[in-house]
Amino acid sequence: MSNESQQDSATTKLLIVDDEKIILSVAADVLEGEGYLVETETNPLEALKRVEKEKFDFVLTDISMPEMNGLEMVKRIKKIDENIGAIFMTGYANLETAKEAIKTGAYDYIMKPFELVELRAAVTKAVEKRREEVAKTDGARLDQLSDLVEVLYTVGDKKSLLRLSLGLALINSGLTTGFISCWEDKSEELDLVWTDNVRESDFKEMSAKLQADDARNCFDFDTPLHSNDFTEHPFVAKLLRLVPESNSLIRYFDSNAGSTTLKATHRDEFLMTLCIQNESTEVPFSDKDLKLLNLVLNMAMVVVENVLLLGESQAALAELATIHDQIINLERVATQGIMSAEIGHELNNFLNIVQSNFELLKLKAKITNSDDISKYIKGIDESLDQMTRFTRGLVDSAKLKSEKTAFDLDDLIEDIVSFLSPQKKYRKIRLIHNKSGNLPEITADTQQIQQLFYNLLNNAAESFPQEFDGQREITITTRLSGSDISIDVADNGSGIPESLQKTMFSNRFTTKKSGHGFGLLVCRKVVESHNGQIEVVSAEGQGTTFHITFPTSD
Length: 554
Description:
By secondary structure, this protein is α/β, with parallel strands linked by helices. Helix content is 49%, strand content 21%. The chain has helices at residues 3-11, 21-33, 44-53, 70-80, 95-103, 116-136, 138-152, 158-173, 212-218, 234-242, 247-250, 287-329, 331-335, 340-368, 371-395, 409-420, 446-461, 498-501, 519-529; strands spanning 13-17, 37-41, 58-62, 85-90, 108-111, 177-184, 189-197, 202-209, 225-227, 258-266, 270-278, 405-407, 429-434, 442-444, 472-481, 484-491, 533-539, 543-551. The strands form four sheets. The protein has a six-stranded antiparallel beta sheet. Strands 2-1-3-4-5 form a five-stranded parallel beta sheet, sandwiched between helices. A five-stranded mixed beta sheet has the order 13-15-16-18-17, with helices on one face.
């Protein structure tokens, strides 16, 4: 046997199924002598249960058996694991059974009684053929990994990502039971997701606080870790002592079964484990399998970090938007010179803190190469520039001045729609931009116009009730109306009561519990500062339209 064949046999796992115990014993002895990992079963129904819980490379089976014939058994096994190879043995060969065997994708067909050398040759040939097939599918596996990356990067929250990663790892392994954990240093939160029935997407999950030293102690083991007693698993045993409620995890795992655990660490900021259980205490994975699982785990870690960074950037952007609203409202005070230097000093202190944290966020975004995060960073950067210019004006006790330039309004709106669409608030909303196509350039302060649309679109997005039937839509329509540019921002949300429409542009108006009341005030100030007009048309249950007009020249 060549060195390559010896390596194949050492990692090839066979399930032999035959109701004749003598043949079963002889075949097992011969193949174990060749270095194969061999399991035996006399009952086809029990064999099916074994395949559901363990990973096998080949099933070697008799065709004629009392409980179920081998052909039917292999067909059912293929539904569980389509990649498993089959070799048939029979003493009652005919053309029909041979055809059926070929249809199941059999690697070989052995007649009883067989010589032992014939059995060895059939298995060796099947293993070599399988190796060639695996070599041919390496490219396909790379394509699968590419698809995996794409799928992972579409997940928007950590728990969903953990469920998806665990499911992909189990399905790829042909197993059903396992858990995945993730601990984050900043929040000191440990998340656990587990399942014993991945095919039914039956996932359980829990979260718990875990201090840094305790978390690192739990994850302190060499990897890959192969354990034969789940209750003595180093991660599980330590976790049970620190987080008693994690005992619910134990009920789903067989303490006498084997398990394989991998871990990934990112500068002690993120710690993750992936544990997959196998009914057999034998090591169920080849080196290739372990590499793939390790890749899944590390990609999951990168995406978790991106998800958290994205959440931080969204929170920072939301906070900056609120501060920006307040700054515009302070313009009147600033122009009068009342406490302007003190306000500017305090805002500059805040800006220094935000700027430092923002530089760290940009550094992490470069490492992860996330386009989505870059969009939010760009938005934060623009907001920071605007705040800086304003605070400088406050310190000098000078009036806030607009920096007006000529630009294409439709292009600006298109950029705003592209920026907002991927955000969580807008994922269930269809943003529609009806372009005029013949608008002249408008001379205005682009950042103030952006703020105008951000406020109107955010209000529109929040106008939809939690339970809303039908497609949620926000439409921005531009057109040339005489010598003016006309813009409509319309939604099909819940509408505004008539009694509130008369006061909605007054100072500090809001209908939201957490609203600050600056949003529509800012909109009015921005429109008026550009010699424009803003009006609202709304009816309860029929949506709201804000109608804005700007002169084509300032």
